[in-house]
Amino acid sequence: LPGGSAYTYSIAAADVDGDGDLDVLLGNANSPSRVLLNAGGGTFPTSIELPGGSAGTRSIAAADIDGDGDLDVLLGNYGISRVLLNAGGGSFPTSIELPGGSAYTNSIAAADVDGDGDLDVLLGNYLSPSQVLLNAGGGSFPTSIELPGDSAYTNSIAAADVDGDGDLDVLLGNYGPPSRVLLNAGGGSFPTSIELPGGYATAFSIAAADVDGDGDLDVLLGIYGSNSPSRVLLNAGRGTFPTSIALPGGSASTYSIAAADVDGDGDLDVLLGNSLSQSRVLLNAGDGTFPTSIELGIASTYSIAAADVDGDGDLDVLLGNYLDNDASPSLVLPNAATTSPTSATSARSTPSAMPLARA
Which residue intervals are annotated with compositional bias (Low complexity) in the record (predicted)? Predict the structure, then answer.
């Protein structure tokens, strides 16, 4: 991908220009972050340099923050984090500085945590408390909630209804202290903090998805550490996690974890973006077990995601790579699967991009 050889810490896909296909967002650390506009079929002739993208972006996301019907871009920076308001067609003339912007923000996400119909912003910070910024409408954030639960050591933040009560809880993937789920009591208050199994392992990435198909959301932890495998924590209901599954290929320093139905069989597979061995797709056998592991041929990945960028009906894999040279660009791996996915979820010597097919 163009612009992807500049320490891409975060990669995402969204239709920011409103033309019906998915564009690629690159959150770069050592050069401006970018939006690569998809011309169709997964080609990206137009690269938009984002304002505020030279501030050390660690996380990038897209969401309609101002409620005008197009997707804005969120930048989680080491410095001032920002929302870039989309004026339509993928132009971003307005940059909103987010409160708490002098923090080391490792992760940014958007979710309606207070249930008022607009999207709030979640900041996963290091060395200062992580925050929820409540949207008052139109992309203004007068209210900032500091999160409990060792939230000053957060690498990854996400929102999902893990206890099944209809509001969005907050997930914290922490460095050092245990990762946690903060249960939402309604209105964006979080009186209950659940310590996740896995103790003091270093979680660089956290996500939620129903990997065992029982109707509730399980928690995925991408663990960084040569002796600590990444894990799926199966939800027994109401946000309890008695079962922890160690993932194959997850002891290779996982920076990023995600879930998506890449083989089109109706269940959610797990994607691991690794740094010390090849990144992988772990195919779900249908019950939250992963007997088949597909190596992706890349071992310098900081961010992994899945999206149908070529418009052929299956989910491709996006890799944000972190080596600052042309030998390790960020990539889209087109999916050569013959069946279409039914669902997907979505919070570092590289070969050329290769087709992704079932092993």
Answer: 336-353
The CA-based angle 326-124-278, given to 5 degrees, is: 35
Q: Is 33 inside any structural domain?
A: no
126 in Cβ contact with 116 (< 8 Å) = no
Q: What is the pTM of this model?
A: 0.92
Q: Give the phi and the psi of residue 218 in degrees, each rounded to 5.
A: -90, 165
CA distance 25 to 212: 30
- Residues found in the chain: 359
CATH code (residue 317): 2.40.128
Q: Rounded to 5 degrees, what are φ and ψ at 106?
A: -85, -20
Distances from the Cα of 129 to the Cα of 55, 101, 106, 202, 256, angstroms: 20, 12, 12, 17, 22
Question: What burial class does residue 240 get, using C-beta atoms within 10 Å of its C-beta: 0-12 exposed, 13-18 middle, 19+ buried?
Answer: middle
Give a yes or no: residue 318 inside a domain.
yes
**Contact by Cβ (8 Å): 315, 306:** yes
On the question of pLDDT at 343 being above 70, the answer is: no
Query: CA–CA separation, 24 vs 107, rounded Å?
Result: 18
Q: Are the C-beta atoms of 355 and 336 separated by less than 8 Å?
A: yes
